[in-house]
Amino acid sequence: MIARTPLVRRLAVAVAGVAVAATALSGCVSALIPDGATTTGTEPVLDGVPDELLPIYDQRLEWEACGSGFECSTVTAPLDWDDLDAGEIDLAIIRQPALSGTSQGSIVTNPGGPGASGIDPVLQGYAAGTPLQEEFDIVGWDPRGVGDSTAVRCFDADEMDAYLYDVPAGTRGSDEWQADLEARAEGFANACDANSDGILEFITTEQSSRDLDLIRAVLGETELDYIGYSYGTFLGATYAKNFPERTGRLVLDGAIDPSASGEDVGLTQAIGFESALRTYMQACVDGTTGADCPFTGTVDDAMGDLSALLSAVDANPLAAADGRVVGADTVMTGIIAALYNEANWMYLTQALAEALEGDPATALFLADFYNGRDAGGGYADNSTEAFNAYNCMDYPAESEEASAAVEQRIAEEAPTIAPYWSGASVCAYWPFEPTGTRGEIAADGAAPILVIGTTGDPATPYEWAVSLADQLASGVLLTYEGEGHTAYNGVSDCVNETVEAFFLDGTVPEDGRVCS
């Protein structure tokens, strides 16, 4: 298994139902934009832009109809905002015009990752709730390094399969096992360097925050209205740090603590997923996950039985119908994928019941969902490549002593997950030294920023939202007492209405408000 730290993919949606949402949405807006239509964007907002950046900011977008009822365009940005002569990159962008026909402005969205496409959530209708879609243009983009923008490229599909799914050589923890993982990590990093056309050094959140301000300007907006989920909260907080006077209404849902080190992130997430797994197990043995639970007794009994199952699969991997061999690391990836959203618990119950019978079908389905692998063996996006590219540049390297101490704590506090959590770090072989720093963000002078934390969030634990809201000079904390990763546009009417009032009416909730 490849090291999972730091892990902040969003995956807040359930594994089923996304296509239904997209179909329903496209029918609502298709009449607004005829097929083949093109429009010229508004004049960019150039107030406060330094003279040397005026040629970059002064671009009018050419929008073309795409999908059914959406418009797509391309923004041109510098490869390196600190060296404008270093070259250019393309940023793919999409917008859904306000369904009411009269827009109050643009809300720009980022679904997280890092490395997730910002275009897909807009197309599929879950970037923002219907009340905001009615009144605002909803905008998404593939950040630098991602998807249809100038992208990081590493492996082809077969190589990615081997990297993500092959069972390591040797027994877990042995020198042979570790050497196999190290070779995989080094091979991945070398392939990214060879195939990414010189962009890896500039795939950073700092650079991406500058892209975000360019997008604001070319959309014709004086201030940025923004919803960032998961990693998108770090991008949004970084934007507020760099451009506090240009922040409008920012919502940061599933917050990341910008002061947490990479080791701290890995530790907190491992404990978070262990806790979420125990919560799931309680529901499983209580019979409330929507499928027959294969475990009985107490939660501790069930966790012990799961550990035994994982050990058995580790010793004797399972054969899948498509010819792949499924090891314990892939089963754990499937478990983690399901824990992102309580709606997926029934799939997890099914996966574990099948695995006990020697069938890895649903566990592999969940792992494929997490990795963006389709049924034909291809990969829908480059999220794994971009995920590593951002993290390797954003997080400073840790000492061996710090890493060892964290591994010990994970073993003690997340004993079920610990054996399958860490392995080899791609970043140890990355061709460029990280340029990111970790530290508190205050964003003095920014408008009120709404930070949302979910008490049972395993991927971005609640304590990070509390910390970020405290750091931000204008931070306002909204707590959702529930399970899953991120809260807005989900099951809580309280959260949905609070966020939508913030955008629609400018209503800032009381700091510390709790929704359950």
TrEMBL record:
Record InterPro entries: AB_hydrolase_1, AB_hydrolase_fold, Pept_S33_TAP-like_C, Serine_prot/Carboxylest_S33
UniProt entry keywords in alphabetical sequence: Hydrolase, Signal
Domain AB hydrolase-1 intervals: 107-285
Domain Peptidase S33 tripeptidyl aminopeptidase-like C-terminal, first and last residues per copy: 416-515
Name of the protein this chain belongs to: Alpha/beta hydrolase
Species for this entry: Microbacterium gilvum
Family statement drawn from the similarity comment of this UniProt entry: Belongs to the peptidase S33 family.
Residues spanning the signal sequence: 1-21
PANTHER family (alphabetical): 2-SUCCINYL-6-HYDROXY-2,4-CYCLOHEXADIENE-1-CARBOXYLATE SYNTHASE, TRIPEPTIDYL AMINOPEPTIDASE
Gene Ontology molecular function terms on file: hydrolase activity
Residue intervals passing through the bilayer: none
Keyword Signal: yes
Pfam families: Abhydrolase_1, Abhydrolase_4
